Amino acid sequence: MSHPTQPLAGRLAVVTGASRGIGRAAALALAGAGAHIVAVARTQGGLEELDDAIRGVGGSATLVPLDLTDFDAIDRLGAGIHERWKRLDILVGNAGILGNLTPIGHVTPKTWAQVMDINVTANYRLIRSFDPLLRMSDAGRAIFVTSGAAQKCRAYWGPYSVSKAALDALVRTYAAETATTNVRAMLLNPGPLRTAMRKAAMPGEDETTLKTPDDLAPHFVRLASPEFSDSGKIYDFPSDRVLTPQMAS
């Protein structure tokens, strides 16, 4: 039985984009719930600050400075986790980029490729590398951060919308493929939160009206817990509901 204040005691979690924003808040919440965090981000400095914060809540972390477009490094990370722990209990695929808000005809091939690499291909590579490890857990949980942009398809949000729609299809397919296993795969839609990405997209917005990554963070703990059994669905933070993708607007 899990300890009530540490429902994830003894569990191992990989979190991407862990040095700031939603990823940092998720890593801290999972650590506070007892999980050991394998924190993945590009910047060593940001990871070291996270490590201090995780120690502050009595948790522990392994820091992995890694650019998610280095796909071979994702494979090496999977091999390293297998060697050391022989399993992975929780995968949080949070890292994502916005690209620029511009008409599709004006998107540069470089920007398009960057958004697809980080938002889609890196998450496919994470699944490819960690699927065997998640299956070795008694309750493997994979949580990927999506966006309402996947359905809304607003003008000028092309690369981001397309990438999140592709991510949704990727994760739902993975959920279907793991339906008879101990693995559960969920999408999480944070809605508008006070993050650097949101500020870049909506520069005139009053940030004080928005919820914060810290408000969202406890839901990562809930979705990561062995007791959480939904799969192939979207947890929608703004409405606090688990939606089947057909219902999600």
UniProtKB/TrEMBL annotation:
InterPro entries: NAD(P)-bd_dom_sf, Sc_DH/Rdtase_CS, SDR_fam. Pfam families: adh_short. Belongs to the short-chain dehydrogenases/reductases (SDR) family. This is NAD(P)-dependent dehydrogenase (Short-subunit alcohol dehydrogenase family). Keywords: Oxidoreductase. It comes from the Bacteria. The keyword Coiled coil does not apply. It comes from Methylobacterium goesingense.
